[in-house]
Amino acid sequence: MASPRVALSLDGPVAHLVLDRPEARNAFDGGMVRELTDAVGAVSARDDVRVLVLAGRGSVFCAGADLEWMRKAGSFTREENLDDARALFELYNAIDRSPKAVVASVQGAALGGGAGLVATADIVVAEGGARFGFTEVRLGLVPAVISPFVVRKIGASAARELFLTGERFTAAKAAAIGLVHHVVPVDDLDAAVDERVGELLRAAPGAVAAAKGLVRSVSGPPVESLRELVCRLIAERRASEEGREGLRSFLENRDPPWVRAVKR
């Protein structure tokens, strides 16, 4: 039996969900997506839980997609890619729609899908050395599935730069664009998260759920209306020659052709 990829623990009214693949930098694979979706759903349904803290074990919060999962995705059919994208979308939507306040504790790095997780949290506390990035274009892909959640968080202007360059950026920049709320020294990360949790526990749980729904309602169209658009887009990009070549280049640790072309 495969080892659990997500650790769930309860501390009174606080549920801690910890990505538990430190040997893989807490990268996503299909098993982690399923486990995390199920765990978020289970916690969100509990009346005795008021706050959900999302964290990653080890030195990295979440490095994005798992290499072996990406390798398998390179041979997926269009329908398999669509199913894969829909499952990932449902994870982000489950966190976004949870009636519980969600606090993300970020260390090391949050890249690609990991940065998408950050975007779904209500409050994000990051250590000053953390790095972020929507790196998909460097593989010939696009951050399609996470885009409805990220653009609502950081706005179209920041997304136009960061989605197009795929560059990594600092916690300070993440805070400046609204992806992160608090940046603290790494040794103060846990205490800063605890302080935010304490403030949330002073708020009425029903009012917290209503306030989350209010923000979703006034900040744009329901993200569910965008599901098929973004899932079709990533399926098409994965199946494209550019996407396949970008993935091959990454897995073989070489520059893709569009980088080699400008190095000549």
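(the above was protein one; protein two follows)
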Amino acid sequence: MPHRNRVTPFGDVIETEARGLLFGNRGVLHDDQGRIVRPFQGRRWIACRLEFKGRRRPLLRPGRFTELFFLDEATALAAGHRPCAECRREDFVRFRAAWETTHPGPWPGVDDVDRELHDQRVGPGRRKGVHPAAPDELPDGVMIAEGGAAWLVAGGSLLRWTPAGYEERRAAGTGTARVDVLTPRSIVAVIAAGYAPAMHPTAETRGP
């Protein structure tokens, strides 16, 4: 039976049999019976490799961080997670370089980055924080919300997110129409500055 440990682009934690390409955490979300009882604990939301130095973790141990999984990095970033500075060091260095490009001044440190991201990813009532933009202003790898679904911006198209991969493809649209962007503003800027998030293989194979 699958655990409730998969993260959607909206930041929700759901139960699904579909497998993800990234692992991560945002603190202890479960109780002693393994039930998810809170959306997050603290501001350090990270996305990690599935395998690192042969480490193995039993899932949902009492008092330990809740092991979360993501379809791909675009999903993790949309939910508000950033690359882990340990197991994904090279990705973190690229993320940091893009962050410094978009945030003038000295590197503030990961605590300040996590604080800024937290202010953007969590809205009133602990609901998902979103911001408006025109689709043609957004770089590939960003996700938007429309019609109750999450859509990935990729190659001038929008791909509908599902737990198992991306499905239908449609034109992203142009003009002044605004959409709700799920990916936090600062991460959108980081992607626009050159940080290319890894996408699930279905983002390339899904046709019209």
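Reviewer note on protein two: Residues 4-121 form one domain.
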